[in-house]
Amino acid sequence: MCVSNVARAAGPKFGDRVAVVGCGAMGLLTIAALKSDGLTCLIAVDQIESRLEFARLCGATHTIDSSVDVALDAVMNLTESGADVVVEFTGLPSGLELAGSLLRMGQGRLIMAGYHHSPDTYDLRQFAYKGLVAHSPHPNYSPDVMADYRRGISALARGVFPMDRLVTHEFSLDSLAEGFESLISHAPGYIKGVAVPPLGA
Q1: How do beta strands 41-46 and 17-21 pair?
Q2: Checking phi first, is residue 52 left (phi over 0); if not, alpha (psi -120 to 50) or beta?
């Protein structure tokens, strides 16, 4: 449901240049949902190389490692004037600031999909300077949650989401703490973990 909601909020048009900032499981699933031959480019931005490799598998046309590259310069080189749509999944002030800076001037669409759950200090100068349009596509943004569930399940059934690649770890119910630690620590190769109950349970 969440990815369906985010993808519909992003709503890129033919020829648009799109960037996704933050390529955890949700970011990667959103890339898979947004990929289209009609887009000029679909750019994945992250600091973890293995996630960028997954992003290409999911449909990203370009990847930018923001731990070694100047993401703003790289995106401007690819898009000439900035992205038309940027989806932010970091949940961090720095990630939201970067996402805003990657947009073109004048009503570029910023999709704030990251969960900004803690009070913090945010630099919103790009919001005014770029004249951007911001959306926060969390569950209450959806006009019909059940319809978005159905869209997501239908996409899953059609093979839009490469779950066989994105589910990288399995944990027994007794090792859930290890699973959460892998998530929090960004264990090597970790994208998405699932809990697997014992057979017959």
Answers
A1: parallel
A2: alpha
**143, two tokens:** 């006009």
> How many angstroms separate the CA atoms of 75 and 103, rounded?
9
Q: Give the integer Cα–Cα distance in Å for 46 and 81.
A: 21
Q: What is the pLDDT of residues 113-129, one digit of tens each?
A: 999 989 999 999 999 99
Interior angle at CA 200, CA 196 and CA 201, nearest 5: 60
Please state, as a whole number, how many other Cβ atoms lie within 10 Å of the Cβ of residue 123.
12
190 in Cβ contact with 183 (< 8 Å): yes
Q: Which CA distances in Å does 64 have to 15, 45, 55?
A: 20, 5, 10
- In terms of Cα–Cα distance, which of 33, 8, 41, 40 is closest to 109? 8
Q: Phi and psi (nearest 5°) for 130?
A: -85, -15
- pLDDT tens for residues 77-87? 999 999 999 99
Half-sphere exposure in the Cβ direction for 132 (13 Å, CA) = 28
Distance of CA 35 to the CA centre of its chain: 12
With H, G, I as helix, E, B as strand and everything else as coil, classify residue 111.
Answer: strand
